[in-house]
Design brief:
The chain has a single domain, classed as Sandwich (Jelly Rolls), CATH 2.60.120.620. The chain is α+β, with helices and mostly antiparallel strands. A hairpin with an 8-residue loop joins strand 10 and strand 11. The chain has two helices and eleven strands, in the order βαβαβββββββββ.
């Protein structure tokens, strides 16, 4: 008589939400020079900034300023790396918004997403950063709330990331996220949005379309340095 037993088959992770992190190395000089530019901007405008806001932000046109060109290059290249990791077929992706954020003690940012964009990201310029927290987009999972031994990718409704200086974090623009209060010191980050250009979808299944060229977006004028990735 044959022995009875059960083999466990590897779990399948259907429909994952992909968040990618990249760590820039060797860019300390460029980072700190840009940090000084942002802190000077904050010093000039913080005294008259909207007191109803929970943190200080610039306008979203930093990609038009020459000091930010190297960071725009990195953001676009890594954005393409994200899209290719997802195995999407696309014509081009460009950076169309970029802004700086400064969080002082106890400042935070409410839950939000980034409309009218395809892919979003944040670059972190300082060492002691409060966490960015992502919310599970599958709202139906809250129909039954189960106690868990500890939070994990499988059971949590929110997941935090503790950013490091020189780190990029990329995520789908529709994914809701927030920033927890900065405990002490200050936290400086640069957020940006990327959008597709050219053909998307498929004529075969009636989803085909062509997105126009954004004349105000950042697109690299030269090939990227090979050592960036």
């Amino acid at each position: 008589m044959s022995e009875k037993f059960v083999d466990a088959i590897e779990p399948k992770l259907f429909f994952p939400t992909v968040i990618r992190e990249f760590q820039l190395n060797g860019y300390e000089k460029e980072n700190d020079e840009l940090l000084s530019v942002i802190l000077e901007k904050e010093a000039r405008s913080r005294p008259t900034y909207d007191t109803n806001s929970s943190n200080w932000q610039t306008d979203d046109f930093l990609h038009r300023e020459p000091e930010f060109a190297w960071l725009c290059e990195a953001a676009v290249k890594l954005g393409k790396e994200y899209v290719e990791f997802m195995q999407y077929v696309y014509d081009d992706i460009v950076l169309h918004e970029m802004w700086a954020n400064v969080y002082r003690r106890e400042e935070d940012l409410h839950l939000h997403s980034h409309p009218n964009s395809f892919l979003s990201g944040v670059y972190y310029m300082t060492d002691e950063n409060s966490e960015i927290e992502f919310q599970d987009p599958r709202t139906d999972t809250r129909s039954v709330i189960m106690p868990a031994q500890f939070n994990s990718y499988f059971n949590a409704f929110t997941m935090p990331i503790k950013p490091k200086k020189g780190m990029f974090i990329f995520f789908p623009s529709w994914l809701k996220h927030s920033v927890v209060p900065q405990p002490a010191g200050f936290r400086v980050s640069i957020a940006f949005n990327l959008m597709l250009e050219g053909k998307i979808g498929s004529r075969m299944d009636k989803t085909g379309s062509e997105l126009p060229k954004n004349e105000n977006a950042y697109r690299p004028e030269r090939d990227f340095d090979n050592d960036l990735l």
